[in-house]
Amino acid sequence: DAGVIQSPRHEVTEMGQEVTLRCKPISGHNSLFWYRQTMMRGLELLIYFNNNVPIDDSGMPEDRFSAKMPNASFSTLKIQPSEPRDSAVYFCASRGLRTDTQYFGPGTRLTVL
Amino acid sequence: AQSVSQHNHHVILSEAASLELGCNYSYGGTVNLFWYVQYPGQHLQLLLKYFSGDPLVKGIKGFEAEFIKSKFSFNLRKPSVQWSDTAEYFCAVNANRNAGNMLTFGGGTRLMVKP
């Protein structure tokens, strides 16, 4: 199994630009999570999906952030417009139906100038 | 709401020293407990987990953790650390499973092992 796949691995953009992060969960997993990691705030859960449906988005910082999961094998996290304070590593994780373990992707390191 | 506390933010040890990282959680019901490790520049990887049964859990790379329900603790231990154990360690709790699949992470502990 390839594990959780995220793209891009690194993204550098300018303030005001739209950023789209992508995640492909492990095949067969039915839950998907988006996290943000910063030095100041540590690891924060932004949103998670069960069976492609957003269950809890209370961690999404503001309306500039949105996430979608159009099918079981793909999810996006979009920031529009981006700001320098959005600079962080964004991790995607997935979990199967019969396990309580989340498996993390390699992350996307986002830098907003 | 559940919360997880890792009291040691930074730990510096010499090789061969023993390690114990503290983790306490606040939730009175049934919990699943995890330790994840994040090596420099890498993603989080599962180190070990506790769901039920023997409260002493053994994980990869010689790590173990003990669940003490009365103390709401799940401390991570390793008898002799190596330089390659330099990483950040995260404790996580999944409580009230009927409410969803969410994990609550502690703030992490950065371990530096001096060669």
Q: What tags apply to this protein structure?
A:
heterodimer, A: 113 residues, mainly beta, 4-stranded antiparallel sheet, 11 strands, 0% helix, globular, B: 115 residues, 6-stranded mixed sheet, 52% strand
Describe this structure in words.
Chain A has no helices and eleven strands. Chain A has strands at residues 5-7, 10-13, 19-24, 31-38, 42-50, 53-56, 65-71, 74-79, 88-95, 103-104, 108-112. In chain A, strands 2, 4, 5, 6, 9, 10 and 11 form a seven-stranded mixed β-sheet that branches. A four-stranded antiparallel β-sheet of chain A has the order 1-3-8-7, with no helix packed on it. Chain A is globular, with a radius of gyration of 13 Å. The model of chain A has no long low-confidence stretch (mean pLDDT 92). Chain B is 0% helix and 52% strand. In chain B, strands 2, 5, 6, 10, 11 and 12 form a six-stranded mixed β-sheet that branches. In chain B, a hairpin with a 4-residue loop joins strand 8 and strand 9 (73-78). Chain B has strands spanning 3-5, 10-14, 19-21, 24-26, 31-38, 44-50, 56-58, 64-68, 73-78, 87-95, 104-105, 109-114. Chain B starts with a strand and ends with a strand. The mean pLDDT of chain B is 90. Chains A and B meet through strand 5, strand 9 and strand 10 of A and strand 5, strand 6 and strand 11 of B.
